């Protein structure tokens, strides 16, 4: 009996800065409410999450600052806004739990990635706690240490 390989979801955009600025506590997958021109632009990879953040307003979750740049061939009767606020879709009990966590001191919601799953755009959001300056320096030091070890191993193999 053959086993089906689950396809890895294809990434549209990643927020690498979030991993540097925050400790990631929990991850959640949310759907997105998008217009047609936004979906077309995402298919060609015209998205950016670098300065994006997630807010909770009146029991709903929104992505703010995530840019989806329109294609040159966008329709003439639609005026595309690249940095439009987009609604994220989660179950009501998940939203209530996230509201309780975000109200605690130091916690926030950040978008980590946009990707395709079963033909739909998903946004991976994370409950995160901000890093202090010394934590960021520690992260840089670890990253540089790993690079040096990899270089040494690579030169040794030659």
UniProtKB/TrEMBL annotation:
GO molecular function, one term: RNA binding
Swiss-Prot/TrEMBL GO biological process terms: trans-translation; trans-translation-dependent protein tagging
Presence of keyword Ribosomal protein: no
GO cellular component, one term: cytosol
Location in the cell: Cytoplasm
Entries under Pfam families matching the protein: SmpB
Major localization class: cytoplasm
Protein task: Required for rescue of stalled ribosomes mediated by trans-translation. Binds to transfer-messenger RNA (tmRNA), required for stable association of tmRNA with ribosomes. tmRNA and SmpB together mimic tRNA shape, replacing the anticodon stem-loop with SmpB. tmRNA is encoded by the ssrA gene; the 2 termini fold to resemble tRNA(Ala) and it encodes a 'tag peptide', a short internal open reading frame. During trans-translation Ala-aminoacylated tmRNA acts like a tRNA, entering the A-site of stalled ribosomes, displacing the stalled mRNA.
Similarity-based family: Belongs to the SmpB family.
UniProt-listed HAMAP family: SmpB
Protein name as it appears in the record: SsrA-binding protein
Gene3D superfamilies in the record: 2.40.280.10
InterPro entries registered for this protein in UniProt: SmpB, SsrA-bd_prot, SsrA-bd_prot_CS
Sorted UniProt keywords: Cytoplasm, RNA-binding
């Amino acid at each position: 009996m053959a086993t089906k390989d689950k396809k890895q979801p294809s990434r549209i955009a990643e927020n690498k800065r979030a991993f540097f600025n925050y400790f990631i506590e929990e991850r959640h997958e949310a759907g997105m409410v998008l217009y047609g021109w936004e979906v077309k632009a995402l298919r060609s990879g015209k998205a950016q999450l670098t300065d994006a953040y997630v807010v909770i307003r009146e029991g709903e979750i929104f992505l703010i600052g995530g840019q989806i740049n329109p294609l040159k061939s966008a329709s003439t009767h639609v005026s595309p806004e690249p940095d439009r606020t987009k609604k994220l879709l989660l179950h009501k009990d998940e939203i209530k739990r996230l509201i309780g966590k975000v109200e605690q001191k130091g916690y926030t919601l950040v978008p980590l990635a946009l990707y395709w799953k079963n033909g739909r755009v998903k946004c991976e959001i994370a409950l995160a706690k901000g890093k202090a300056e010394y934590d960021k320096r520690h992260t840089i030091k670890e990253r540089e240490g790993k690079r040096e070890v990899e270089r040494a191993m690579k030169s040794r193999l030659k």
